[in-house]
Amino acid sequence: MLAGAILERASRLRVFPDVANLPLRSPVAIAKTAAGALREAVEVVRLLWSDERSVRFSGRHHELRGAKPGPQPAHDIGVWLGVGGPKLLEFVGRSADGWVPSASFFPPGRPAGHARPHRCRRRVRRS
After folding, report:
1. 49 CB contacts (<8 Å, ≥6 apart)?
2. Residue 102 has pLDDT above 90, yes or no
3. DSSP 3-state percent helix, strand, coil across the chain (nearest 5)
């Protein structure tokens, strides 16, 4: 809600959530939700932001049956992921708009080696 309130009053500011709030959501729920559902969630978000009249999606974790997309965002909202591991980094390069690597896993100044999505739709941001 805070990000929404800030964005409502600011025209040149961009805001995105960067950290999961553990007191509000248990680490078990976060881990289980994120483990298999991330790829599907990105696709569902993009479908619901589309200009289609109706969308369908059938996955293991998410399902839409004739859902009505919208409202469309007033401006472009990127899907940025803070993930690690070769498979998810490959997914970031194919499907996300950017990568927000955690400094504790990918410290600045230390080469990330294979741990870097080379074809992000947009860019990489250090947190």
Report:
1. 69, 70, 72, 73, 77
2. no
3. 30, 10, 55
- Tokens linked to 80: 């940025």
φ and ψ of 45, to 5 deg:
-60, -45
Q: Which two tokens stand for residue 58?
A: 């059938």
Neighbours of 53 (CB within 10 A): 9
Residue 10 domain-assigned? no
Phi/psi for 42 (5° steps) reads -60, -45
42 contacts 96 by C-beta, under 8 angstroms: yes
Q: Of the given ranges (12-26, 51-65, 83-97), which has the lowest mean pLDDT?
A: 12-26
pLDDT digits (tens, 9 = 90+) for 21-55: 667 777 777 776 666 888 898 999 999 999 999 99
Q: Could you report the per-residue pLDDT of 57-67, keeping only the tens digit for each?
A: 999 888 999 99
Q: Give the structural domain span for 33.
A: 25-76
Query: Which residues of the chain form beta strands (DSSP E)?
Result: 55-58, 63-67, 80-81, 98-99, 123-124
Residue 9: phi and psi, rounded to 5, are: -100, -10
**Which residue type occupies 8?**
E
Domain count, the chain: 2
